[in-house]
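note to self — DONT lose this again. spent like an hour looking for the file last time. sequence + predicted structure for the chain T wanted, 249 res
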Amino acid sequence: MIVDPVCGKVLTEREAKGAAFYNGRIYYFCSIEHRDVFNADPARYACNVKAMALKVGVMGAASGQFPQSAMTEAYELGQVIARQGMILISGAAPGLPLESARGAKSGGGLSIGISPALSLDEHIQVYHSPAEEFDVLIYTGSGLMGREIVNIRSSDIVIIVNGHSGTLGEFAIAYDEGKLIGVLQGSGGIADIVPKLVQAIDKETGASVIYDADAERLIDKVVDHYVNFHFQRPSIFMRTEATGLPIAG
């Protein structure tokens, strides 16, 4: 349930006229005026409702060749996400997902790993994946490719840093399902060919793609875009008021 913290009106995302970001959480409003009232004194109104924390998924290469700079950038992404009070989602994998989790941990944030495994034992022994850096591990039992879907659908915002074939799959799912996607430019791999991919896909899905070469600026940009534009339709899985069915992309 979404409630305007200024007036108490119950809303759906599509009915909201404005949104605001405060302490990692997203707030919705029945009018632009109420959004502006909230932004003038958020601490006064935030306590009136139970708001959801934004979940940012960091998708990147787990193995193979990638530059040391990509490791540093993934770590910085985790730090920035944590500092802003948001929740980090990743594939609970080694490589860049692990670095983002380490960054979130250093920033005092919450890190959730979406595991391809059925259990902790399988996660470690079969998939050779880390566990100690994550606050929560969710065992999908879906394998590597099935886990990608849960990764993306669990994230409000998806960040692409470097990446190989698995990251390509995650980008494709995010784009096809109308997600807000941030791309860390210059990090190599899939991230650096995203503009060509978008051009080749040539399909309007409702997805938005934001680019920047700096981790902190990229996070600031995607949060700003989410709050000002993307909040009303965060994915294709939005119900119409008349039918209750998902809206096609």
